[in-house]
Amino acid sequence: SPAIPTIAVSKKIALANKETLVAGGRLVIDEAKKYSVDIIPVDSEHSAIFQSLQGNDISDVERIIITASGGPFRGYSKEQLMNVTVKDALVNPNWVMGNKITIDSATLMNKGFEVIEAAYLFGISPDKIECVVHPQSIIHSMVEYRDSSIMAQMGLPNMMLPIQYALTYPKRSNNELERIDFDKISNLSFEKPDTDAFPCLRIAYDALEKGGNASAIINSANEAAVDLFLNSEIAFVDIPFVIDKALNTCTHISKPQLVDIILTDKECRKFVREEFLK
After folding, report:
1. How far apart are CA 93 and CA 38, in angstroms?
2. Rg from Cα positions in the chain
3. Which of its termini does the chain have fewer beta carbons within 10 Å around, N or C?
4. CA 235 to mean position of chain CA atoms
5. Using CA atoms, how far apart are residues 116 and 213, in angstroms rounded to an integer?
6. Crossing angle for the helix pair 99-107 and 214-230, nearest 10 degrees?
7. 14-52: pLDDT as tens digits
């Protein structure tokens, strides 16, 4: 990962992707600590958490709550998901994104990766990280403290704000972004994610519990599976199936080095291809 050599010559890293911490996790965080480099998240959910933590002690955090739009298939049953197409999956209700991350949003793998990233980025135990489906995407994530107070960062769905905040932190700057008109918001709703129909979120927690290179395994397996789905070579419901199988099949390394992460990536991609194209 370019993040590791970059840390050695930087004062601050604005981290714009999930894969760096999902795959490299402990390696990246240890390097940042070694060189006293701040990692400022650009991802909207982690920026919201980062902002909600300002001025507070991390030891006072009782719970981190990551919000999710729910993707295009929110409310679908497992049976309904068996028939969805690539075209169906490439529609996100609130965000305009690239094809791969849009599919990750549809499977909830994106939220799973965000849980992993939050655990490493903020040094929070996975049992203190929850996900909640929030279809309006106005609240980007929340932090609950030991006194039951919850801090939330809100805004219209627009990546310009977290990008700007990462670049100007600890200061804030003016911009011309659209402001929220609360008169036009009829409600803000929340619901529990369906990990039975969308098991990728559960798989991410399993990988965190397993530790080592397990997160790297599911990251690589997911990328390979999504490529197959986008090429119409596997079904949508096959994506979590193969990720879970890779997690329990590919070589587990408890204390991986960078070379191990690279080898894990190659092994997992090969496993996925052979699993479905044999």
Report:
1. 33
2. 19
3. C
4. 22
5. 12
6. 110
7. 998 888 999 999 899 999 999 999 999 999 999 999 999
